[in-house]
Design goal:
single chain; 10 strands; seven-stranded mixed sheet; globular; three-stranded antiparallel sheet; Chemotaxis Receptor Methyltransferase Cher, domain 1; disordered N terminus; 2 domains; binds S-adenosylmethionine; 10 helices; about 40% helix; alpha/beta; Rossmann fold
Length: about 280
């Protein structure tokens, strides 16, 4: 008996059910689930099978496939995303961002445009915002997007447990967070001055045309620890689209295990997992 068979399942879950889930999440979010994710898919989606009263995975998936525009699609996607993140993750990126923003402010009258494209529960975009503000651009707007509406709602709230801000420097903590008391003891809230730098929007990186596009391209894009869930063709396609919305000389920040050097897109490795858009 292998480890997977050791799990108790009260709902029937066949290999065919997993195959259908795999196809549906790949086509809707680009997420490629390998065989080792069967138990994860079961435990996360069994809640949805119960909540919708579908009674079985087979019936739940039938209903999902039958109605492409049902709100259950969002629940299905939210259930299968992995949202691990924390403040100042991959610390080495932040001095690079700081130097870029300082240089930008010397050469431009407008603050840089920044896009955080897999923002999860907000720790990453708020870390970016603190860095950008400290580098002299407190009026910059940071567009923070994710496919998952639950994590975006948490990010929008800007409330975190005290233990999650341990990686934040004390000076920044005092300047940008409010400490809760009474019923809110043990919590911190992002101060309004920092919160107003952020604009949260739902965006699926897989879409052909991103709603956040404007005539004004970005100076910086963060796309960290999400491409690992996509296969190579999907990654290449997204990188080509990033190249269209990032200014030449702009920076693309990638996650620690993501390498875009052989993507064919116009990016040059500029530092540890930082790419520059070349013209
Ligand atoms: C592991 S988290 C990484 C969060 C953050 N970037 C970091 O590095 O700490 C991956 C995030 O990517 C999001 N995601 C997955 N597929 C996506 C897609 N197709 N479009 C946009 N976001 C997606 C997930 O919802 C999740 O919040």
């Amino acid at each position: 008996m292998n480890a997977r068979e050791n799990f108790e399942r009260d709902l029937e879950f066949s290999g065919a059910d997993f195959e259908r889930i795999r196809k549906l999440i790949y086509s809707s979010a680009g997420i490629a689930l390998n065989d080792s994710k069967q138990q994860m898919a079961y435990s996360r989606l069994s809640r949805r099978v119960r909540a919708t009263g579908a009674g079985s995975f087979h019936e739940y998936l039938n209903r999902l496939e039958a109605s492409r525009d049902s709100s259950e699609w969002q629940e299905f996607i939210n259930s299968l995303t992995t949202n691990l993140t924390y403040f100042f993750r991959e610390q080495h990126h932040f001095p690079v961002l700081d130097a870029f923003v300082r240089q930008h402010m010397k050469e431009n009258s407008k603050p840089p445009r920044v896009w955080c494209s897999a923002a999860s529960t907000g720790e990453e975009p708020y870390s970016i915002a603190m860095t950008v503000a400290e580098a002299g651009a407190p009026h910059a707007k940071i567009v923070a997007t994710d496919i998952d509406t639950n994590v975006l709602a948490q990010a929008d709230r800007g409330v975190y447990k005290l233990e999650t801000v341990q990686s934040v420097d004390n000076k920044l903590l005092r300047k940008y967070f409010l400490k809760g008391s009474g019923d809110n003891a043990g919590l911190v809230r992002i101060r309004p001055e920092l919160r107003q730098m952020l604009v949260f929007r739902q965006t699926n990186l897989l879409e052909d045309s991103w709603a956040i596009r404007s005539n004004d391209p970005f100076d910086v894009i963060f796309c960290r620890n999400v491409m690992i869930y996509f296969d190579k063709p999907t990654q290449k396609n997204i990188l080509q689209k990033f190249a269209q919305v990032l200014k030449p000389g702009g920076l693309l920040f990638a996650g620690h295990s993501e390498n875009f050097s052989d993507s064919g897109a116009p990016f040059r490795l500029q530092g540890k997992t930082v790419y520059e858009r070349i013209s």
